[in-house]
Amino acid sequence: MHLHYKINVRALVGQFQLTGELLDAEPFGSGHINDTYRFTLEASRARRRYILQRLNTAVFQNPAAVMENIRRVTAHLGEKISGPPDAARRVLTLVPARDGKSFHCDADGNWWRVFPFIERTRAVNVVESPAQAFAAAKAFGEFQKLLADLPAPRLHDTIPDFHHTPKRFAALEKAVAADACNHAASAKPEIEFAFQNQALCRVLLDANLPERVTHNDAKLNNVLLDDATGEGVCVIDLDTVMPGLALYDFGDMVRSMTNPAAEGERDLTKVEMQFSLFAALLRGYLAAADFLTPAEKNLLPEAGQLITFELGLRFLTDYLAGDTYFKAACTGENLDRCRAQFKLFASIRRQEPAMRQLLRG
């Protein structure tokens, strides 16, 4: 066993209500924010795998609120999905720490949590088919629907103004003015493009839409797909679950599920919203999200534009500030991501008339 990562997996696993011998552990997944490991325990000759994750407290500066939201949401989902024989695969389950809490805080102030690994599923980073888009969108629609009756109190705003696009734009303006890393000159076309499209920022905020419990990072790889059937089994990565607009999630689906190119694709000729994928995810989402108001449905075509533009703003802001939020393997990676998002936004906007026609049926 080669546990030569920067953490002592054995000691951390011992802080949770788990039994068995630790057989292996390895870094896992492709997330930008948290540090994630998968490990295997053997007890009574049975092996089970788990996910161990360190919450990034630089991003989530109120980790207690994050974990309280996750605890409440997973408990509610667990109650609502308790019937089917595979219910345990359909919702994340927090493994309690030895002290009964939903997390363990180590001596260095790191926050850790453990979930059982959901077997016979996979996460897909780049959409491969309309069937995948349909399955993932349906899973997110069901996720929102199941949480529509989450009892009070209101969930914590773990990242205040997370999808407040005008404030994201203001952060970009500040980063451009500061130019802390002398990157503004290399991003001049992207900065100009952002300012040309500033008017889009308020399209959802000014529509007086109802507040709902939303995922707020509803991208394709945050739904686990069943290996055998391709069905969307479980929505994961719940750190950003909080009050929001349903269309924030739909917009993220459009952004992440209609473009087969990678998020940071440098060949921008590959970056395009494929209409067949949009049609599939719209069908999947509406198959589950029967709670939407007419005003919400009417703004579905704008949602993808807004969220794609907003993420482009965030990548651009982070590039100008020195890659302080999104992990970047090299300088310029967040600028590549920004360029891809802005190209995708332009493609989505160009196809809005066809999206509206599809929505009208």
User: What does the radius of gyration come to?
Assistant: 20 Å
The quaternary structure here is single chain
Question: Structural class from helices and strands?
Answer: alpha+beta
Q: How large a portion of the residues is in β-strands, by DSSP E?
A: 5-15%
Overall shape: it is globular
Instruction: Look at the structure and give the CATH class of the largest domain.
Output: Alpha Beta
Compute the separation of the termini in Å.
57 Å
What is the CATH architecture descriptor of the largest domain? Alpha-Beta Complex
Give the tally of structural domains.
2
Query: What's the count of strands?
Result: 10
Given as residue ranges, the uncertain stretches (5+ residues, pLDDT < 50) are 1-5
Q: Count the helices. How many? A: 11
Could you give a short account of the major beta sheet?
5 strands, antiparallel
CATH H-level homologous superfamily name of the largest domain: Aminoglycoside phosphotransferase (APH), C-terminal lobe
Q: Strands of the biggest beta sheet: in what spatial order? A: 1-2-3-5-4
- CATH level-3 fold name of the largest domain: Aminoglycoside 3'-phosphotransferase, Chain: A, domain 2
Helix content: 25-40%
SSE string: HEEEHEEEHHHEEEEHHHHHH
- What integer is the average pLDDT? 94
Layout of helices and strands:
Layout: H1 9-13, E1 21-27, E2 35-43, E3 46-55, H2 63-80, E4 104-105, E5 111-116, E6 121-122, H3 130-146, H4 165-178, H5 188-196, E7 212-214, E8 223-226, E9 232-235, E10 242-244, H6 246-257, H7 275-288, H8 294-298, H9 300-321, H10 333-350, H11 352-360
Antiparallel strand pairs: 1-2, 2-3, 3-5, 4-5, 6-8, 7-10, 8-9
Helix pairs in contact: 3-6, 3-7, 4-9, 6-7, 6-9, 7-11, 9-10
